[in-house]
Design a protein that fits this description.
The protein has helices spanning 10-17, 30-36, 54-70, 81-89, 110-117, 160-172, 183-192, 216-224, 235-238, 248-262, 288-295, 301-319, and strands at residues 3-5, 38-46, 75-77, 93-100, 120-124, 140-142, 147-149, 175-177, 198-199, 228-231, 245-246, 267-269, 279-280. The chain is of the alpha/beta class and 321 residues long. Helix 1 packs across helix 3 (54-70) and helix 10 packs across helix 11.
Amino acid sequence: MKYADMHCDTITALYRSNGSLRENDLHIDLNKMRKGECLMQNFAVFTDIAKQDSSFTRAAIDYYYKQLEENKDLIAPAYTYEDILRNDENKKISAVLTLEEGSVIDDDLSNLDYYYDRGVRMITLTWNYPNGIGHPNFIYEKDRDHDKLHTINEKDGLTPFGIEYVRKMEELGIIVDVSHLSDAGFYDVLKYSTKPFVASHSNARAVCPVARNLSDGMIRKLADKGGVTGLNYCSAFIEDLNEEITMIDNMVRHIRYIVDVGGIDCIGLGSDFDGIGNKLEIKDASGVQKLYEALKAYFSQDELEKIFYRNVLRVYKETLK
């Protein structure tokens, strides 16, 4: 079963280490992706604005294109839905460039045009800091054993600049990503957006009660909007006990729950590969078919295709320009 993955941090990791996309020790390289039957991978450039600025973002984008050029026999950039179909016909994996941390436009909406021209087709509005766009959805608080992401922010939403930011993204054809965003910010995006949006790497809060996951109400509203949430493979967002390994059965539990709440059309994959610190039962991108095998007991072939790639591609068809 081919799959589309809405989020990974691989390019950022490769840029920092001067590594190769073709073969490496990370969750994702081209050999692993081919074995896992990857159709399309979103590659996020993650910028930690406490340590870096937009010069890091721009340099990492340069590195992304350098890697695509060096491996153009196996992978090609995609800017539209049609590009993904064409690349698949040519037996190439599609790479979609995304940003994780929207403030790298440096408070200037015209810089969204720059990033669009560089190929960015999705932006995660916030990471773990407030920025000029909005607020993240948790505060780190210590308990006896570990940091736990459990404080839900229902007060601080998008700023006036953030509302204009979302409108400009939709005008250009850049998908709005609400993973990391506060609950209040989510509902502001719902209010001010006119197209489907995504939570590229978020799970079900009722199954794992951390603020990074979506409430039942958010899942339903996202589904009503035609959007998709991508299953995040990180153990902290899969299992509240914060196990050291992400088990497939627990991944399945989130998918089944999200489908029960929002319907079959609102769930996809958003691995967070190479942004995950724990081990995975599926190990890396080469093991994604293990998840497919586990889900066959609960879903039809048509439903599995929706989960693994068709839901995500539908959103891309409706939003990308």
